[in-house]
Amino acid sequence: MYARGMSVREILMHLEELYGTDVSPDLISAATNAVLEEVAEWQNRPLDTCYPLVFFVAIRVKIRDEDFGRNKAVHIALGILPDGIREILGLWIEQTEGAKFWLRVMNELKVRGLGDILVAGVDG
Fold first, then answer.
1. What is the mean pLDDT of each run of 10 residues along the chain (124 residues)?
2. β-strand 86-94 against 116-122: which pairing, if any?
3. Where does residue 22 fall: left (phi above 0), alpha (psi -120 to 50 degrees), or beta otherwise?
4. The pTM is what?
5. Closest CA to 54 of 74, 80, 76
6. What is the DSSP letter of 96?
7. CA distances from 36 to 8, 30, 41, 42, 43 (A)
């Protein structure tokens, strides 16, 4: 719920309405913080040195930003390993994309250990 843009207060009201349960704002904050730590670990995990195939795609989603719903692009790097296993290498949310954005993405992947992509599939 927090990831979808709901505030702690909105989550409390939602839990009360759906489940008739009363939880403290501290519990919601603690749960959110625990998840955010795991997300940060996932985002910074080491990658394999080579992916034979990586797809770079974007999907448009409505995201709550500063109390407004805005359309943004979620850019996804999907790597395919030699044994066929698929792995999401990263997710990036940006309003627009351009050379600076893609340079930042490629540098992030390189810092995390990715050294080579044999085939990169991109849209557009």
1. 69 85 85 83 94 94 74 92 96 85 94 97 84
2. unpaired
3. beta
4. 0.74
5. 80
6. S
7. 14, 10, 9, 10, 10
